[in-house]
Design goal:
The chain has 291 residues and is of the alpha/beta class. The chain has two domains: 43 residues, no CATH class; 228 residues, Alpha/Beta hydrolase fold, catalytic domain (Rossmann fold). The chain contains nine helices and eight strands. It has an eight-stranded mixed sheet, sandwiched between helices. Helix 8 links the parallel strand 7 and strand 8. It is globular and about 60 Å long. The termini are far apart. Keywords: Hydrolase. Its EC number is 3.1.1.45. GO terms for molecular function: carboxymethylenebutenolidase activity.
């Protein structure tokens, strides 16, 4: 086995910080030991972490082809908020819920929703931190909020958005879901809970394989070869889905890290893998959601 490079070790340290201990002092101490100085450590962290400044790099929020809006209300008896995006052509289309990472409904996820809309869907990106006051600007705080979120309520709100979308004018009557990291895990849970017609999970931790009999929707699962943490649950989940003859397409992208689709993380984004996964995702969603 190839010895991990300093960059690989840095990515793993950041992954442990963002998904496990969330202790920034520990992260900085470990990165400093790796990089040799606090200044170099901060530079490493900045390159790996998502950058809000790069969040709208692919689709302009003011793109004249799109209607976009942030809408608030109440779903499942709690405050709700979601970003909506769709083409102005008023054609019949399927709906795709876009589920955020553990940092909440960031500008990057709104950008992803616009990409989904340009691909020919109504995109709805719920802020699943809305019951706690909504996604904060402080990403560390958002991660803490995710850790204490009412997961059953989040599922209920997502299912409510899906149910309403089916009845909208111009809807094909079908709803899919795509999620990233924490949102990727959420896609798997929605496939078990019901209420969707197709799901795409990007590097999302998977449920217990014993639950596979309850999967109610076809799935597409994207994994990163270097993402050992997610592979621990992802590999058994894929094997169980295939053994149970559940409709699943699973892809592992070689030599890439967790969050390889996130173009706001300079150190982890891999354009070739992201483009390949995106093309597969959009084709899969059209196959299952078009009227």
């Amino acid at each position: 086995m190839t010895e991990p490079t300093p960059r690989d070790r840095a990515v793993r340290l950041y992954d442990a910080f963002t998904h496990e201990h969330r202790d920034r002092r520990t992260l900085l101490r470990e990165m400093t030991a790796l990089a040799g100085s606090t200044v170099a450590a901060e530079a490493l962290i900045a390159g790996i972490a998502a950058s809000p400044a790069a969040a709208a790099a692919i689709v302009d929020p003011a793109d004249k082809r799109l209607d976009v809006a942030m809408r608030t209300g109440t779903e499942a008896g709690a405050p709700a908020r979601a970003y909506f995006a769709e083409l102005k052509d008023k054609a019949t289309r399927g709906t795709v819920l876009v589920i955020h990472e553990n940092r909440g409904l960031t500008p990057h996820i709104q950008d992803v929703a616009r990409r989904v809309a340009l691909a020919g869907f109504l995109a709805i990106a719920p802020d699943l931190l809305a019951p706690q006051g909504g996604t904060p600007a402080d990403e560390d705080k958002a991660r803490d909020m995710i850790g204490s979120a009412d997961y059953d309520l989040a599922l209920a709100q997502a299912r409510a958005f899906a149910q309403q979308a089916r009845a909208l004018p111009g809807s094909s009557g079908k709803v899919g879901i795509v999620g990233f990291c924490w949102g990727g895990a959420f896609v798997n849970r929605m496939a078990l809970a019901g209420g969707i017609d197709a799901g795409v999970s990007y590097y999302g931790p998977a449920p217990d394989p014993a639950e596979v009999a309850n999967v109610r929707a076809p799935l597409m699962l994207h994994y990163a070869e270097r993402d050992a943490r997610v592979a621990q649950t992802g590999d058994p989940w894929v094997a169980a889905l295939k053994t149970a003859n559940k409709p699943v397409e699973a892809f592992t992208y070689p030599d890439v890290d967790h969050a390889f689709n996130n173009d706001t993380s300079a150190a982890r984004y891999n354009k070739a893998a992201a483009d390949l996964a995106w093309g597969r995702t959009i084709a899969f969603l059209h196959r299952h959601l078009d009227g």
